[in-house]
Amino acid sequence: MKNFKSQISNFKLLLVAILGVALSSCNMLPEQPEYRLSDLQALWLENGTEHYVRFTTEQSDEAGYQYGREWDEAEDITEQDLIDARQELGHPGNGWFKYQFETKGNLTEIHLMDNGGAEIPKVYVVSKLTSTELEYYEKDYKNIKFSFSKVVTAK
């Protein structure tokens, strides 16, 4: 009887070891989907607001970053206002940002400020990016979420 109990204990130990090896060899986390930069580079309208964001194809002065801009027409600011201000200043300022996008969904934005040339970095995680929808949240504050729809403009 003692030998039988020992065999059961050994069998349980072997089963746990096999299960441990099997679980450690599989990745239990769901794979992050890959996104396309070409889907991001567009004009987006935040749902329920007059807040616009444009991710451009224009390279910034830093390798790997591109320019973007954002404005709120509820505050009587237009995209053309940002473009005109850049031409007057000779550099981008308020409303402009540099961004870098990774296909696995990390989006880094560095917001450019007129006052003293401050650069304010923000890191977001894209949770949805299709040809018509964009959703992302702040990496450090997951409850701060943004949802946009693509603005289709006539050519």
Summarize the structure.
With about 160 residues, the protein is α+β, with helices and mostly antiparallel strands. It has helices at about 1-25, 35-40, 80-90, and strands at about 45, 50-60, 65-70, 95-100, 105-110, 120-130, 135-140, 145-150.
Tally of domains: 1
Rough outline: elongated
Order of helices and strands: HHEEEHEEEEE
Report the CATH C-level class.
Mainly Beta
Which strand-content bin applies to the residues?
35-45%
> Within the largest sheet, what's the order of strands?
1-2-3-4-5-6-7-8
Task: Outline the biggest β-sheet.
Answer: 8 strands, antiparallel, barrel
Give the count of helical stretches: 3
Secondary structure: helix percent: 25-40%
Task: Determine the CATH topology.
Answer: Lipocalin
Separation of termini?
A: 85 Å
Assign the structural class, choosing from mainly alpha, mainly beta, alpha/beta, alpha+beta, or little secondary structure. alpha+beta
Note poorly predicted spans: none
State mean pLDDT (0 to 100 scale). Answer: 85
Secondary structure tally: strands:
8
Radius of gyration, whole Å: 24 Å
CATH-defined architecture? Beta Barrel
